[in-house]
Fold this protein.
Amino acid sequence: MTEVYLNDKIIGEVENGKIFARQMIDERRKNNLPGDVNIFHDEQSDSIFINSSKGRVRRPLIIVRDGKPLLTEEHLEKLEKGEMGFNDLVRQGIIEYLDAGEEENALVSFHEDELTTSHTHLEIGPLAMLGLSTSLVPYANFSQGSRVNIGSKSLKQGVGAYCSNWATRMDMDISLLHTPQMPIVKSIMHDISDYRSHPSGQNIVVAVMSYEGYNMDDAIILNQSSIERGLARSTYYRPYAAEELRYAGGLIDEIDVPDKDVKGYRSESDYAHLEGDGVVYVGARVDEGDVIIGKSSPPRFLSSMDEYSLTSASRRESSTTVKHGEEGVVDFVLLSRNEEGNRLVQVRVRDQRIPEIGDKFTSRHGQKGIVGLLLNQSDMPFTASGIVPDLIFSPHSIPSRMTVGHMIELIGGKVGALGGRFVNGTTFSAESEEDLRKELQMLGFKDNGLETMYNGMTGKQFKARIFVGNMYYMRLKYMVANKIQSRATGPIQLLTRQPTEGRAKEGGLRLGEMEKDTFVAHGASLTLKERFDSDITTIPVCEECGMIAVYNEWKKESYCPMCGENSTVNNIEVSYAFKLILDELKSLGVYPKLVLENKY
Amino acid sequence: MKIFDEYKEKLPLKIVEEVREHTKGLTSDKIKKIFEKVYDEYVSSLVDAGESVGLIAAESLGERSTQMTLNTFHFAGVSEMSVTLGLPRIIEVLDGRKTLSTPTMEIYLKSPYNKGKDIQKIAAAIKETVLDDIVDEYSINIVDLTIEIKLNKEKMKELSLIPSVVSKAVSKKSKKYSVKLDGDVLVLKLKNKEENLNEVYKIKGAIKKIHISGIKGINQILPVRRKDEFIIITAGSNLKEVLKMDEVDATRTVTNDIYEIHALLGIEAARQAIIDEVNKVLESQGLDVDLRHVLLIADTMCTIGDIKGITRYGVVSEKASVLARASFETPLRHIINAALIGEKDELNSVIENVMLNQSIPVGTGLPGLITKFK
């Protein structure tokens, strides 16, 4: 007897599980059962699991009977003519969806010619084993698996046309590529996913060589002139928003140009870009710290203020300003109301981002790199036919990573660019390297993609032939302009008097415990002290009781509140954090007595 | 020669002896020149005053050991005998753990046993045998409330045991029951008249672990050939009992249990064991850490005559400074305990001075300026 479970609940028993499961599946194929039901016969525990619940991952497979797929040439013709769709095949029981359980009972073949009578299903195509974005990697079956993974990950970070209605959207941290292109070497997934409507890279000329040493260790060299012609140029968008919040007592925020008597009023020039309604005008050039949306809020702690203050309590300044380290042009202003009916102002700032040293670029094979040098076209190497590469890629990135797909794409791109056609680089069913080489030879180039090149600075011919071709390259969303940070002095934290943390707050770079250890290991005692001087303070200490004394600024003298004015008080220099520890010890009931002694 | 005596005062004896050995047959002039060079080299090799040797040792070992984390669970050396190696073993040694995850011994044998004579017999004598190892079957007679234990003759023969010895060992263990020997069947009967089936089951569980023969604590043995002699590798360790055996070469037999070595052979041996154990791991991972870093760490652990691990209970608790102890782990506990007895922190070490933002007493911070008034 075989137990039968429907969605993990036992519903009964059947005589023969195997036959029952087969009958159930047959009924499903005849459409007598819903298509999203899956039947799994677990032979080990001899029980049947019928699943119809949501959340199962299922995938389509072609049904095979007696070693022959049910999908025939006839169907393919009809599909091509458009007389039939994919859903018709599912309805007719030619293709079915399996979940993880039912897959256990299936024997699936990758290729039609490997079918035997024991096979139950045929893969629609070997590409089906890859996900959507991994299918976009051309010649992936030639590269190491991990590199294909990295390549498919960087595809998601590529700057491009991420959607078509971007002009009316207020998306955070978004870049748009100005002139995106469809890749020359594409896979069928580019067509299926309509990649043409949201491409994210450009086809550029790549030379695999080292040049002046500026493309060591995954760096790349870019052609400055190409950039000036618009290569990989993008725009960065940053939305800002302000809302008129309502507070208790009928008080409300006001979006307008704040009055001068508002608490925390900035300088007049900071509000220069605002129009009469308190919002910037479209097209204004704004810099860091400039007010974009002027706003004032009612005072805090209102009740106590009313009684004592003669003048009406002044309002607080609460404008929205351009973030630290950012600039741009106001792109779009949106005035609306939110769900609660409060007035909502949204402003989008755009900033043109020209590729610069430190920006991240990648091919589709996990070969990402940072721009190490921008070279003028006149200084770039050139081929015998006068082609100047847009990008110089280091040959040392290839052997250890084994991204052969990267190099085949280079040849494929070259063939496509020269022949004026797209090249099919679909994983497992691509145009063969051999064919590409033959075609390249027919186009008048060496079949291995090598070309004679000359040094752009000296004009001398390179001894080695250089591997040149076209590749699809993407600019990734990580740009130095969003990361660059430095600080000499700046804001400090209120409690610890140490520098703030993080780029947005103009923070310092932490010299942590392990970094401290390196100073100690070098014996650089005074350098270490200086590095930690960021929160240094002078505190008066009573020699009598060893506690922190008081400095009277008016009388210019120190005294100990415990021992009176007669005890001697000396100043010592310690970090403010240590003073805090002393305070904390006192709050614990521990008496931290400082015993002073002359340093020399 | 005179020159040797002169340099005996300036150089360690070992170096002088080495020079003597290598300079045989040279003229005293040449020997003198050699000594001058050796002395210069020796002086320049000395650690400078104020060098942070401790921190450098910690960094040298710590930086390298982070590379080991991946290949930890490797079987080392001999088949089927797994020994903890890699980072876990280093942590075990430096923490001064008392119970090891895999205690093991390498037992060397005296001649002629090291050539393979009677090796199986010796091995069998070393391995601990408990009752369970030689029993075929336990059966409980519910009516009489007795346990009948059928012994395995073949296994006993391998260990050269006879039933009466087993019977004696079992009866020695507890006075709750009486043992009767019936051929190769032991019959255990409760002495207590208030018979209880539960009690019988309890006894049945307890007697399985009764020690019959061999050395306590040694669960597995593996005779292996190393170079041109046979040694016995064990899982489990009992140095004291093993060294008592006549066939064992006591001068070379080792255990990886440092506390056992300390108890039996003293602190100097324990120090050497720490060095050897750490070095063994480093070598097996192909790491090149200077011996002197390991020496310093071993010295630190053994300096008070007892083994102290590098933990908050070990060497850290021995630190003189309250602030230094508090900065390691459990700060509140240290501060409150210090407050209870009114401890004084002299600010003599590194961490305290970093906390106060004073220059630390190492390197350039060590020398003070002294001016003499005329």
Summary: Chain A has a mean pLDDT of 90. Chain A has four domains: 2-129, 135-232+357-475, 235-353, 513-587.
